[in-house]
Every structure is written in structure tokens, then in C-alpha cells.
Amino acid sequence: MIDTYVSPPFRITRLSHIALQVRDLEASLEFYQRLAGLILSHRDGGTACLRAVEETSHHSLILTQGDEPSCDVVGFRVLEDSDLDAAEAYFAGLDIATVWRDRPGQGRILGVTLPSGILIELTARMDRLPRLLTEYSARKGGGALRLDHCQVIVPDVEATGATFLNMGFRAAEVIEQGDTGRRVGMFLHRKNNPHDIVLSMAAGPRLHHFAFITPDLQSMFRACDIAGEMGIGNEVERGPGRHGPGNSAFVYFRDPDGHRIELILPPMQIMDPDEPPKVWSNADKHMVVPWGGPASQRWREEATLFTGVPLSTDGDLARWVADSK
Ligand SMILES: [Fe+2]
């Protein structure tokens, strides 16, 4: 049984931002602004910072012009600056190296390479910008409201999950192999909904996708229609559809570099700390995938490498999916 009462060694509050390397910044900006509806907060040469219309933090997505598509970092917010110092001491105690870095629009930043190779950074503060929720003409494309979660694929979900549990994450949902009981998926959160980070089993570490919340199905369909209008209708990769875990209504798109963005409807809340994780079996296909066709092979296999982190030799390239029986 996974303990959902945790005393975190430092206080992460939520997923904060994703930083990506892209090959053509102009093309990426058009995609994220026109299709997803993100707002440009800051641009400095080859780097652009974007946020969604509900967000007042400086950015939730950073795009940097580079030679190869990759994910520089998955960023989490902590409660106060003192939590950054506590985090530095925590990782030092585990012999895990940390680095202080600077970035426009953010306060102090502590970068960490987790044992799984996942690159994370922690920050307590960001510059504040206006919330554009009531500026209705600012809403474009899918009308993304706020960043919700990311999914990272790793060969050993149990071990990587333990890393996050030890950092104070709570498990909302767990997916196990029906025959072996091996953990193939974990939904981990700090902000009391199903997920800040989801772990799924495959060769890794790789960023499978990151997800923004969109207000309604109409906005989701509008993003699909705009993909068609932009001539990238075939990059509507999966959905709209429904996941059993999280009860998420989803649609996935691939950006010009193949990075995968998901739009989801507002997720349920995990209200109480004594709520145990819901355990799913991947053999219960009708529960895990209640309706719709199977995921395409490219949705299963293709994902974004972390910058400078090699792909493990463990695990299949294709992400696990529910048995098709
Ligand atoms: Fe997701």
C-alpha cells in the first residue's frame, strides 16, 4: 500500500513549466499560440516564454531555438524560497548533484538530475503578469487555461515513482499489469488533482506529453479544426477520447518538432489525504480505455528525449497500453 500521508522534505506545490528545444521557433510559436491558444509573455532572441490565459505566472512553456528537439527540463513550483534550500540539502544528502541557474521571469532556480535521468528544476517565484481569463478576445485556438501535468516514460515505474513519493508526491492512481502486478503507470500529484506528473513504462527517460486544461469540448474541437486549417490535421494524433484513469477527456497533438501536447477537460479533485490510490489493472481494457480505438503505434513509441540524457537500454521503445483482449 502506498502511503498518502506524506511529510515532504521540501514543499513542492505543483507542476510549473516545461522547457523545450525546438528547431524553428517561429513555427513553434505559431503552433502554440494559434492552435493551443497560449499567450506570448516574453521573447528574447531564440527563447520565448508562454503562458495560458488563466495563468498569472510568467510562463508555463519555454521554447528555445536549438538544433535538435529535446526537453530541457520539467519545472515544479515550491512554496517558499526556503524550500529551495531544503531541497538542495535533501539532494546533497542523497549524493544527487544540484545546480543553481537563472532564467528570465523566474526567481532562484535549483536544477536537479534525478537518478532516472529526468531533468527537473524547482523554483518558488515567477514574475506576475495579468490574468487574461476575462479578456475574451485573447482566447485563441483551444483556449488553453492552465498547465496541468506532464507524462514521463521510464523503464522502472516503481523505482522512479519512489523517488517522487519520497519528495512528497501523493499517488492518485496506479496501473498494474494484470498477470504480474508490476507497476506500469503512476499518477502522482501535489496539487490535489490526479496528476502533476504521470509515469508510464517504456524505455526512457522521455517526455511523452504535457497537458493543458481547456474549458470545454467545444474548445477541444476548435483546436482540432484549427489544426486542419493550418494543414496539420494529421498531427491530431489521438482523440478526442476518454481515459479511464483520471476520467480524463483528452486530445493529443504533435507540434512541429514532434513534441506532444495534450488538451484535457478540467480534471477531478483528490480532496482528502486519506484517500488511497485507485489501482487499475491493464488487463481491464474496458475500464482503462472505455471506448475508442487503440492508440497508434507512433503515440506509443515516439517521445521527446531529455537534453543530453541518453535513452536507456532497458524497456521497450513502445509505451505500455492496455491489453487488447
Ligand atoms: Fe496526460
How would you explain this protein's 3D organization?
There is one protein chain. With 325 residues, the chain is α+β, with helices and mostly antiparallel strands. It has two domains: 12-129, 2,3-Dihydroxybiphenyl 1,2-Dioxygenase, domain 1 (Roll), CATH 3.10.180; 141-305, 2,3-Dihydroxybiphenyl 1,2-Dioxygenase, domain 1. It is 18% helix and 34% strand. Strands 9, 10, 11, 12, 13, 14, 15, 16, 17 and 18 form a ten-stranded mixed sheet that branches. Strands 2-3-4-1-5-8-7-6 form an eight-stranded mixed sheet, covered by helices on one side. The chain is globular and about 50 Å long. The mean pLDDT is 94. Fe (ii) ion is lined by residues 149, 151, 198, 209, 211, 262.
Give the class from helix and strand content and strand pairing. Answer: alpha+beta
- Secondary structure tally, helices: 6
The sequence of SSEs as H and E is EHEEEEHEEEEHEEEEHEEEEHHE
Number of strands: 18
Low-confidence stretches: none
Note the overall shape.
globular
Termini distance?
Answer: 28 Å
The main sheet comes to: 10 strands, mixed
Bound compounds, please? fe (ii) ion
Based on CA atoms alone, the radius of gyration comes out at 19 Å
Helix percent band = 10-25%
The CATH architecture designation of the largest domain is: Roll
CATH class division of the largest domain: Alpha Beta
CATH homologous superfamily grouping of the largest domain: 2,3-Dihydroxybiphenyl 1,2-Dioxygenase, domain 1
Q: Estimate the mean pLDDT confidence.
A: 94
